[in-house]
Input
Amino acid sequence: MNVVRSPIAEQLARRMLPATTFVASAGVRAGERDPFVDAVLAEDGLSLGTRQPRTLDDLEDDYFDLIVTLAPEAHHAALELTRSLAVEVEYWPMPDPTDTGGTREHIMAAYRDVRERLKTRMSRRFLPPVAKNPAD
Output
C-alpha cells in the first residue's frame, strides 16, 4: 500500500543515490500514511515531508530502468506491469513491521529493522565496494 517499506526505501535511496537518479515508490493499493514511518525516518534525519502514499497507477506514465519490489503482491504486480517492457525487476523481500505488536518501542524496533535491512541492501546493490587498505 506504499505506506511503510517503499516510502522508507524511497527516502533512503534519495539520500544514497545521485540527485540525477529518479526515485519513486508506489503500492498496489492506496493506503494511509503510517506515523511510525515518520518516526523511524526522523531518527535518520529523513522526512517524507508532504508526500502521501501513491499507487502504481499514479506512476503509470513514468519510465524506469529498475523496479525493486519489497512484498510478494507488489512483485507480482510489477512483473505483470513490465511484461512487455525492458525493465529489470528485483525482489528484495522485507518483513512487514505492521504485523508487530507490543509496546511502542517494540514496534519501533521492527520498523528500524526494516530501515537497516534496506540500507544494507541498497549499499550492496548501488554503491561501489569500499577498497581495503593494503596494510590491513
